[in-house]
Amino acid sequence: MRTHDAVIIGGGPAGLAAAVQLKKNGIDDILIIEREKHLGGILRQCIHDGFGLTRFGVTLSGPEYSQRFIDMANELGVSTVTNATVIDLNGDRVITAATQQGLLQVQGKAVILTMGCRERTRGALAIPGTRPAGVFNAGVTQSYVNLYNTMVGKEVLIMGSGDIGLIMARRLTLEGAKVKGVFEIMPYPSGLPRNIEQCLNDYDIPLYLSHSVVEIKGQERIEGVRVVQVDESFRPIEGTEKYFSCDTLVLSVGLIPENELSLAAGVELDWRTNGAVVDEFYQSNVPGIFAAGNVLHVHDLVDFVSKEAEAMAEGVAEYLKNGALPECGLEIKAGNDIGHLIPQRVSGKRDFKLSLRVRKPWGKCCLEVRQGETVLKSLKLAKAIPAEMIELVIPAEKMNSVEDLEVRVYEI
Amino acid sequence: MKTDFDVIIIGGGVVGSAVARELSRYKLGIAVLEKELDVVNGTSGHNTGLLHSGALYEKNSLKMICSMEGNADFDRVAEELDVPFKRCGKLVVGFGDEERERLEKLYQKGLDNGVPGLRMIDHAELKSIEPSADGDFALVVPTAGILCPFTYTIALAENAAMNGAKYFFDHAATGIDRTGDHYTVHTAKGDFTGRWVINCAGLFAYQVSKWLGFGAYEPARVKGEYIILDKRVGKHLIRPVYPTPNIYGDFDVHVTPTIDGNVLVGPTIENIGDKIDYSATQDMIDVLARDGLKMFDYVKREHYIRNYAGVFPTVKNEKGEVEPDFCIQTREDIPNAVNLVGINSPGLTSSLPIARRVVEKIKAQEKLIPNESFDPVRRGIERFAEKSKAEQAELIASDADYGEIFCRCECVTKAEIKKAAHNILGVSTVTGIKYRTRATMGRCQGGYCQTRIAALLQQELGQKKNEIRLKTTGGYMFTGDVK
Hints:
The structure holds two protein chains of two kinds.
Chain A lengths: L1 E8 L3 H12 L5 E4 L15 E3 L8 E2 H14 L3 E3 L3 E5 L4 E6 L2 E12 L3 E3 L2 H4 L9 E3 H9 L3 E2 L3 E5 L3 H12 L3 E6 L9 H8 L6 E2 L2 E7 L6 E6 L12 E4 L2 E4 L3 E3 L2 H5 L24 E3 L10 H21 L7 E5 L3 E5 L2 E2 L5 E7 L6 E7 L2 E8 L8 E5 L10 E7 L1
Parallel strand pairs in A: 1-2, 1-8, 2-5, 8-20, 10-18, 12-13, 12-18, 13-14, 21-28
Antiparallel strand pairs in A: 3-4, 6-7, 7-8, 9-19, 15-16, 16-17, 21-23, 22-24, 24-27, 25-26, 25-28
Chain B lengths: L4 E6 L3 H10 L6 E4 L16 E2 L10 H20 L3 E2 L3 E5 L1 H18 L5 E4 H7 L7 E5 L3 E3 L1 H14 L3 E3 L4 E7 L2 E6 L2 E10 L5 H8 L5 E2 L1 E9 L1 H4 L6 E3 L10 E4 L5 E4 L3 E4 L8 H14 L8 E9 L2 E2 L10 E5 L2 E8 L5 H17 L25 H10 L6 E3 L4 E2 H8 L8 H8 L12 H12 L18 E2 L2
Parallel strand pairs in B: 1-2, 1-12, 2-9, 5-15, 12-22
Antiparallel strand pairs in B: 3-8, 4-8, 5-7, 6-7, 10-11, 11-12, 13-20, 14-17, 14-18, 14-19, 16-17, 21-22, 23-24
Helix pairs in contact in B: 1-5, 1-9, 2-9, 11-12
């Protein structure tokens, strides 16, 4: 069987950044396995701009952003195989991929999971109603419009205010559709403020907060939806029900890291992130299997995906050079108001980067990381919202390697 | 008069297709008029996929006789038609004395019907054979099984078509006239003449029955809602688990593993009279969540992948009573017509036995000449996901398209989708591809593969973007190109 130092599953932004960074660390024998014809992952269909402000200091389209990494990977001579879908991964880090030339079996000394995520669907939410044509997920709509030159409808409603839904509200408007509104069950938008501004407000598309779609109507093609306003406990408020006609409903109701392969390999998942439980080196519970990017936890900006993958590559390089990584026996506990955090385990001996999301919007607040009585880090914020991931570096100097850590947020 | 066809079958669901298949054993011109764009768009595609044992039904009723016959026969049928089937048995669990009494009655009824292998077990044995189930005691029904209602119905239809039956989709019958020695069945797309008419119209059988002059049945339809759970939790359920029948003799919400490894929660039971309503409702979703959890620990929202409803074609007879049994009727004053009404559960299990009885009714009237080229064997599309790695490598070597994964959740390849697109029935909808391959049936519900399927339908079948249909004639997927 072919072996490589590192095999990367998925040639999207995380996989590409990991490959480039490994090369820069002197790890030469790496292979990216990509199921599409081209590298770039989901960015291929993200033709809007706004990518790269953090990572490159300029605003780029999705394809431009990924091309920068593809060019770097090519210059560094990263091996890639495209049109190859990984169908199995086991705990011995043996990968099986289906290709038109046959089954490809390779073993990685390290295996890097960068498969990204999938969209939450209508079925997962059990939205009542009929099952007509014309109900699409936002990412699927984006793929039809931007990659397949296919228009999905003329009179559009959007359920959920996730970023892709907001982007598609604008995109479909530009292509001549009437986007009649976006319904969000939470009292605040789940997408980024800049997308609310640039994709909805600039096009006079109304955003209905605390509104839930309670029924999909239409026998063959969707004809409309029943919408109701909800209270703080998401219970329908009587007398607020409205009917909106449409021929298309676009769902932007969340992303779920795609971890079927990880599970097959015995990787433990975190119920909060739906991604692997990892240590400060982004290594999972299965030695030699690492994860970064949206397969680990859903990011709002691709720049952070790239940076996370680069940080992971440092850990992978160290693992390959030393044959093992320091033990990470300390758990980082998330307080009630923390949505999720990465990593979940640390050694207590080194600086590490903590990524997290708050569970609900906060005004002036303080994020605090403690170990027993010791405050390792506290960060004052003017505001914190679930839509924006927060990153902070935790210094090793005050850490001990015995006690678990705890993260909390409180009002100031 | 020379008619277009010898036999016109109205309705191409599992019963109509079984009738077409059994009749194709003889030299007959057979037309199947189906109002939908596929054979599984009505009741045949919206049920639990259970192979019933026959324990539930009145002794010597057609339901008992046909389901037991269908059950006993199914290993052979599954082999012949190359459809997946598992004789996993079924459990009916109960708690307390009152339920024990009711379950004992069911047990006795099953014994009396002659259902083989029935036995009562205690809590400990229940736990040892089905760890996720709970109960003080349980009835084991070892002959029950699970099958795929989609591929089974499609296989019957394909085998009928292979042997000469002609399917006409989007052909709803709108009326029937009898002139001289033949029938004329009207559709919006033209008239069909035939010597025989077989009413297999399922939810609309009451209407066809009236046209033919049989009893004036009225629809008293029953709706059932279901939730489908992710395959991740399917491994925790080995066989269907039902609660003890309620005081009305109905089964409340139960859990059934599907042949492909998901779990079905349901159905609920709701009388909807003359309506046809496939919508899911919040009330019933809540009932399924609450009652399903009593049967199976994993009935939790994070495992939901889809929900759906089915409608049973129950009817009331002229006395206004719900017709309890299958009706397989002929009448001297209505020559050359077989009327099938009230074919609800266990219709899937009973489809071939019902079809054989239809053939007997025809044989009683005329001599049928065997079709010497009849082939009972139909081969399905080879499924990449179900093969060993060595077999997968062979498949790719034989056809490179087996190396291109279209549907990641169900691991369906381009080769399978292409074969499905070129199916012998000429079904060309996105949902038709789904029923034939499982593409889009997984946890991402087509998020990855639907775009590819739409592109393939354009390439392989020359469909234009605005011609691609999800499931029905009016169910267009796209308006066309981006401007």
